[in-house]
């Protein structure tokens, strides 16, 4: 680097630039926050059961096998669109029953198949969790994932 | 060792290496479950194994950073650590919390946000640990000589603590939750951790090459400038598909594509300094790890990050094994290798010996980096096949996983090699050293400024 670009110049560029970009980032975050609350998620249906369902999701650490909107572990299927995959848009009752039956029948114990543990969820917990997954499937994710396979 | 209080770093490195062992063990176990899914499925489910794998990694890297800081801050500030006692209290608390977390996880005691599974009391303990640490190093720096290395290091460490506070904010709205979750995860590893990395690297260059401090510190500011200018708005590459506005696809793509720049600069910097220095440092292994670290970070974080960061690519690769490939090589190249570099450099001083077990250490370097490279390629190929079958053709997740099983065997094999290389490394650093080398250190390798 040339002699004109001194250490103190480099330092000033670093501090000044970092403050500048951080300020922009915080500003855009605020705008995104507002966008999420008003446009991309349905706050009016963010009911208590959805919130409880999120707690069930977290308490059992589903994220360390599954992914949700593409984030998490990659050991088990994506669940951000599992409601759609189970046909919840056309027949909500059947999707709910299907998801609950699936969770209740684990583990399959089949040799050579990945095993999902039995979490012994109560009926309410199961329904809350399904409510949470249903709510999540309606987030505007810019059309991600590309297809129902997740 | 110039200052007696630097020896606290020895215990930080020791504890870090214990957790490094836990991390590799859990990783090897998780890799085994991938190919033999019935293993341990009733006793220790995959989600718990993975939790231990990732948590142990993060905590040992932090512990290593703390050790690096306690080692280099006295030499930079030219005075002893403000309170070695507090440093030991801090270490004890952190190690207790880490081990308690691991035991708790196996008993089903955990939260559920990825990487933030620690129970609340441990999260609070981490804040206490951070406060003790920041008080200790900040006071040491403020009362002593101030250098660019300590300026940048302190900024990085304060940033780590500040962004950690977002661990206590978990909105009910999943999209908001994710936005602020990345304030910790991204702004750590693609933000303030890079400041720590660059400053430790600068310290290593000053010590091992003998190049003028002014030159190195100018580079340091330029590198960390590039890191934050690209990395802050680069957070946008996590905001594509979580409910955030569409403009993040532009901002995230452009700025995160630039995130490769600081890593490229680090490679040029390190190699240039080592060639320019023309000083044959006797600890060849430390120089090798330092150079290797920049290359590993360039490929893992830089190239493999760029590979899937553009939004129209990420639309297909998001949340596949491509992400896993990037994650493994990025953490290894940037932060694992950095810690192993400084530990290799510092241990002879901390033990009062001339550099020792160089051949074994260098051998462990090549096996470990080679095995991590194989692992990365295995996961990348697995990801490419997965993207095509699942994201393009729409075949169901589990069917696709069966198709890519062979790659998981390769991953397990390379993981076992990493474990073997880690054992070699640990022996080369902590193993017994013959008496005849015991007195060489002070004469031979007083670092140049």
Automatic annotation (TrEMBL), chain A:
Gene Ontology molecular-function annotations: electron transfer activity; heme binding; metal ion binding
What InterPro entries does the database record attribute to this sequence?
A: Cyt_c-like_dom, Cyt_c-like_dom_sf
User: What UniProt keywords are attached to this protein's entry?
Assistant: Heme, Iron, Membrane, Metal-binding, Transmembrane, Transmembrane helix
Domain of life (superkingdom): Bacteria
Question: What sections of the protein cross the membrane?
Answer: 12-34
Domain Cytochrome c per the UniProt entry, residue ranges: 48-137
- The molecule here is called Cytochrome c
Automatic annotation (TrEMBL), chain B:
Keywords for this protein? Electron transport, Heme, Iron, Membrane, Metal-binding, Respiratory chain, Transmembrane, Transmembrane helix, Transport
InterPro entries associated with the record: Cyt_c_oxase-like_su1_dom (IPR023616), Cyt_c_oxase-like_su1_sf (IPR036927), Cyt_C_Oxase_1 (IPR000883), Cyt_c_Oxase_su1_BS (IPR023615)
Taken from the UniProt entry, a GO cellular component term is:
membrane
Q: Where is the signal peptide?
A: none
| Gene Ontology biological process terms, A to Z | aerobic respiration; electron transport coupled proton transport; respiratory electron transport chain
- What is its membrane topology? Multi-pass membrane protein
Please give one Gene Ontology molecular function term for this protein: heme binding
Tell me the protein's name: Cbb3-type cytochrome c oxidase subunit I
Provide the transmembrane region boundaries.
Answer: 12-36, 48-73, 85-108, 120-137, 149-169, 181-206, 218-241, 247-275, 287-307, 327-350, 362-387, 407-427
Domain (Cytochrome oxidase subunit I profile) spans: 8-449
Q: Where does the record place it?
A: Membrane
Q: Which family does it belong to?
A: Belongs to the heme-copper respiratory oxidase family.
């Amino acid at each position: 680097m040339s002699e004109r670009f001194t250490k103190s110049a480099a330092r000033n560029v670093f501090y000044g630039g970092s403050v500048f970009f951080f300020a922009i980032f915080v500003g855009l975050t605020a705008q995104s926050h507002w966008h999420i609350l008003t446009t991309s998620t349905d706050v009016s249906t963010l009911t208590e059961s959805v919130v409880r369902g999120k707690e069930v999701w977290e308490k059992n650490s589903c994220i360390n096998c599954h992914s949700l909107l593409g984030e998490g572990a990659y050991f088990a299927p994506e669940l951000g669109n599992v409601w759609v995959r189970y046909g919840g848009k056309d027949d909500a009752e059947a999707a709910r029953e299907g998801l609950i039956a699936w969770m209740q029948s684990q583990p399959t114990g089949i040799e050579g198949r990945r095993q999902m543990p039995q979490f012994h969820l109560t009926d309410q917990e199961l329904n809350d969790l399904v409510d949470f997954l249903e709510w999540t499937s309606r987030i505007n994710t810019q059309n991600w994932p590309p297809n129902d396979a997740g | 060792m110039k200052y007696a209080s630097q020896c606290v770093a020895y215990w930080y490195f020791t504890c870090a290496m214990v957790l490094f062992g836990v991390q590799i063990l859990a990783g090897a176990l998780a890799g085994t479950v991938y190919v033999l899914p019935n293993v341990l499925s009733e006793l220790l489910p995959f989600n718990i194994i993975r939790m231990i794998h990732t948590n142990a990694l993060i905590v040992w890297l932090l512990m290593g950073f703390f050790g690096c800081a306690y080692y280099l801050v006295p030499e930079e500030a030219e005075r002893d650590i403000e309170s070695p006692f507090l440093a030991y209290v801090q270490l004890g608390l952190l190690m207790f919390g880490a081990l308690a977390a691991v035991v708790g996880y196996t008993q089903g005691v955990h939260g559920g946000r990825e990487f933030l599974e620690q129970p609340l009391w441990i999260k609070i303990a981490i804040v206490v640990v951070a406060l003790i640490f920041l008080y200790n190093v900040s006071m040491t720096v403020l009362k002593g000589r101030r250098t660019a290395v300590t300026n940048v290091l302190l900024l990085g460490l304060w940033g780590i603590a500040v962004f950690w506070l977002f661990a206590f904010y978990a909105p009910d709205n999943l999209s908001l939750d994710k936005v602020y979750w990345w304030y910790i995860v991204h702004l750590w590893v693609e933000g303030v951790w890079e400041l720590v990395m660059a400053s430790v690297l600068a310290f290593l260059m000053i010590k091992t090459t003998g190049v003028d401090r002014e030159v190195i510190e100018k580079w340091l500011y330029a590198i960390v400038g590039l890191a934050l200018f690209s990395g802050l708005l680069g957070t946008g590459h996590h905001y594509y598909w979580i409910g955030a506005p569409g403009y993040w696809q532009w901002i995230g793509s452009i700025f995160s594509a630039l995130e490769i720049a600081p890593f490229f600069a680090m490679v040029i910097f390190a190699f240039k300094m080592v060639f320019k220095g023309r000083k044959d440092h006797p600890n060849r292994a430390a120089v090798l790890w330092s150079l290797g670290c920049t290359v590993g970070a360039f490929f893992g974080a830089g190239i493999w990050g760029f590979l899937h960061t553009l939004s129209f690519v990420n639309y297909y690769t998001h949340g596949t094994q491509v992400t896993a490939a990037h994650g493994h090589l990025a953490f290894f190249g940037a932060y694992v290798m950095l810690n192993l570099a400084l530990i290799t450099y510092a241990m002879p001083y901390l033990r009062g010996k001339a550099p020792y077990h160089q051949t074994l250490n260098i051998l462990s370097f090549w096996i470990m980096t080679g095995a991590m490279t194989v692992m990365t390629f295995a996961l990348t190929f697995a990801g490419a096949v997965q993207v095509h079958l699942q994201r393009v053709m729409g075949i169901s997740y589990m069917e696709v996983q069966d198709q890519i099983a062979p790659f998981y065997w390769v991953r397990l094999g390379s993981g076992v090699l990493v474990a073997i290389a880690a054992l070699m490394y640990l022996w080369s650093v902590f193993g017994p050293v013959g008496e005849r080398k015991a007195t060489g250190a002070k004469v031979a390798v007083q670092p140049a400024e």
